[in-house]
Design brief:
CATH topology of the largest domain: Dihydrodipicolinate Reductase, domain 2
CATH superfamily of the largest domain: Dihydrodipicolinate Reductase, domain 2
CATH class of the largest domain: Alpha Beta
Shape: elongated
Largest sheet: 7 strands, mixed
Number of helices: 15
CATH architecture of the largest domain: 2-Layer Sandwich
Distance between the termini: 69 Å
Structural class: alpha/beta
Radius of gyration: 25 Å
Number of domains: 3
Number of strands: 17
């Protein structure tokens, strides 16, 4: 005679889910949850301002729409999805949910970059989960990989193309040599860039993401504002001509390397070999490379933005949390974080592009300045056919520290023949 199955083997009840924010990503998440055939997750609440205008006929009738976050906080919801974005009121909502022992899934890169370590500690103290896999690289599962697949390695370096807007603009300059302003207008027309694209173009978006990657992969606590960000606005189409002569192209690269107690980190345009993984990434794709002591190099490539790819990452985090809760709530293991000194003083070869009014002795004057700062010239490149009153040319340098180069750049910018400040780009392997 067979023993009856114990109640512990019965299917776990569905986890009740509240969605904060019903924008592009929120709608995509709701659609996935409503179309899922399994009973692991159940959408019960949607929070948004002006919900009367947001309601959709495809949302089940038993889903509660509300403009009152306290109604969610005081409900029996198990997991809160935060897709409001920004810091206020998102930070307050997430903290309140965690304090109420509700697990949180978020795609909010600003929130995690600035408050991630504290929020993780709060989640652990309240025996619940905080997952943020969609906060970097959208649908590219790099953060879940850092949490699980690479957790056995000891990572020492992370580098990536983390901003699809910048990558679209730079790849358009590369392919058609169009003006920067035209490429930006295209990106805005396609919805890749906001009307004010400063956060993308000047590196703010990418350095927030790099801060999160450093937290998850290198276990380093670093504020985004502590990472130097260089703009891509200074890149001209002619730079791609010179880069091609060097076997390279130009991409916005975010990189972090942990050496002892120093985290070398920076975001900005860089020369990369055209045949490298970074050089082959086109349009608005994202790519993240990790370097580990034991596992070597790993690559993650995919769509870094958009409602559907980001929604997939959010729902994947939801499923991870639901499965964890089904095994019994338990605190997340707290990361052992360090607070390293942050430096942008990388040692690399350099690409220096000048715009000058042509006259005798320019190269000699620049060579004297470089020599005085103990910097060695590797090559001089000058293409014919340009107006002598606005002549671009390039000097490449042998490897040197950023701190050695900066004083020389300041001195060279004061020369009477200089029409613009010198553009300096690291040349990456």
């Amino acid at each position: 005679m067979h023993e009856p199955k114990s109640s512990s083997q019965d299917p776990a009840p569905p986890r009740r889910v509240a969605l904060l924010g019903f924008g592009t990503v929120g709608r995509a998440v709701a659609k996935i949850l409503c179309e899922r055939s399994d009973a692991q997750l159940r959408l019960t609440h949607i929070y948004n301002r002006s919900v009367a205008r947001k309601k959709q006929p495809w949302i089940p009738n038993d889903v509660i729409w509300t403009e009152d976050f306290d109604a969610i906080l005081n409900s029996n919801v198990d997991i809160v999805i935060e897709l409001i974005g920004g810091l206020a009121p998102a930070e307050e909502f997430v903290r309140s949910a965690l304090q109420a022992r509700k697990s949180v899934v978020t795609a909010n890169k600003q929130l995690i970059a600035r408050h991630g370590p504290d929020l993780l500690q709060l989640a652990s103290a309240n025996n619940c989960h905080l997952e943020f896999g969609a906060s970097v690289a959208g649908g590219v599962p790099v953060l879940p990989a850092l949490r699980t697949g690479l957790s056995g390695d000891r990572l020492h370096g992370i580098a990536g193309i983390l901003n699809g807007t910048c990558n679209y603009i730079l790849s358009r300059l590369e392919s058609d040599r169009i003006p920067f302003s035209e490429a930006l207008e295209e990106a805005q027309a396609l919805g890749y860039a906001e009307a004010d694209a400063s956060e993308d173009l000047d590196g703010g978006d990418a350095r927030s993401k790099l801060s999160i990657l450093a937290l998850a992969g290198l276990h380093a606590r670093v504020s985004p504002t502590g990472i130097r960000a260089r703009t891509i606005r200074t890149i001209d189409a002619v730079d791609f001509d010179y880069a091609a002569d060097l076997g390279c192209t130009i991409r916005q690269i975010s990189r972090a390397e942990l050496k002892n107690t120093t985290l070398f980190a920076e975001v900005g345009p860089s020369l990369v070999p055209a045949s490298s993984p970074f050089g082959r990434v086109q349009r608005n794709l994202n790519l993240v490379l990790t370097s580990g002591k034991y596992g070597g190099d790993m690559a993650f490539l995919g769509a870094g933005a958009g409602g559907d790819p980001t929604a997939v990452a959010v729902v994947s985090d939801l499923m991870f949390v639901a499965e964890s809760l089904s095994g019994g709530p338990r605190p997340q293991s707290s990361l052992q974080l360090t607070s390293p000194k942050v430096s942008c003083n990388f040692e690399t070869p350099w690409y220096l592009r000048f715009w000058v009014k042509d006259q005798p002795g320019i190269i000699a004057s620049l060579a004297a300045i470089l020599s005085a700062h103990q910097l060695n010239i590797d090559a001089v490149l000058q293409k014919p056919g340009f107006d002598k009153n606005a002549l671009p040319f390039v000097i490449t340098l042998e490897p040197c520290r950023d701190s050695q180069l900066q004083p020389a750049l300041q001195e060279m910018s004061t020369q009477p023949f200089a029409l613009r400040a010198c553009l300096s780009l690291p040349i990456l392997p």
